[in-house]
Each structure stands twice: as C-alpha cells, then as structure tokens.
C-alpha cells in the first residue's frame, strides 16, 4: 500500500467519523422562560442562604458568648456579602455559558481540525 492510498483511507475514515459524530451530538436545547426562571431562583436561593447561614452562625455565637446583637449583625452582613459574591459568580457563569452542570470540555476545541499527533 502506498503512502497516497493510506492518506486517502485516513481521509475517508475521518469523514466517516465526522458524520457519525454529527448524528450522535445531542441537539442544543433552546432556552425558554422556564430555564431563565430556574437561573433566577438559583440566584435568589444563593443570596438568601448566605444571609440565613450568617445569621444563624451569628445568633449561635451570641447565645454562646452572651453578646446578643454583635455577632448576629456582623455575621449577617458577612453572609449577605458571601451570598452576593456567590450570586455574581453564578451570573458570570451563565453569561459566559459555562454552567457547572455542563461537563467541562477537554482536549481540542470543537471545530478544531487539527489532530493530536
């Protein structure tokens, strides 16, 4: 078998693989208002959970040490800041399209025609 015949066979094999991959790729889901509502609720839950955890920890420390309003106020504010930070990180993820639920791509980018070797 000559080098040219091998190259032609490899090209034919690459074309067949590309056709099979095209049929196996799942269709891209169209975003509807329900998915946007899920994003909104996730952000609200992140903010409220930060507030709640901070307030609970602050109240617990205040009861433990007998200084009722000090830790409650401080840790509630810290919880709010943590909730806002987490909410902004989620917004940035959705803005760039890298949701945590989506699997991370490894290797070459899609559409990259170069081979690994």
UniProtKB/TrEMBL annotation:
Segments traversing the membrane: 39-57, 63-84
Keyword Transport tagged: yes
Entry keyword set: Hydrogen ion transport, Ion transport, Membrane, Transmembrane, Transmembrane helix, Transport
GO cellular component, one term: proton-transporting ATP synthase complex
GO biological process: proton transmembrane transport
Domain of life: Bacteria
Pfam family, one: ATPase_gene1
InterPro entries: Atp1_alphaprobac, ATPase_put
Annotated spans, Disordered: 94-117
Family classification: Belongs to the bacterial AtpI family.
Function: A possible function for this protein is to guide the assembly of the membrane sector of the ATPase enzyme complex.
Protein name, entry field: ATP synthase protein I
């Amino acid at each position: 078998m000559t080098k040219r015949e091998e190259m032609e066979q490899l090209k034919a094999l690459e074309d067949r693989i590309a056709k099979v991959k095209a049929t196996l790729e799942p269709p891209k889901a169209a975003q509807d208002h329900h998915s946007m509502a899920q994003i909104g609720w996730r952000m609200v839950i992140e903010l409220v959970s930060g507030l709640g955890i901070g307030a609970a920890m602050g109240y617990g420390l205040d009861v433990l040490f007998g200084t009722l309003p000090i830790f409650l106020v401080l840790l509630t504010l810290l919880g709010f800041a943590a909730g806002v930070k987490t909410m902004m990180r989620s917004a940035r993820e959705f803005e760039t399209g890298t949701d945590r639920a989506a699997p991370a791509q490894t290797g070459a980018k899609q559409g990259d025609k170069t081979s690994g070797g």
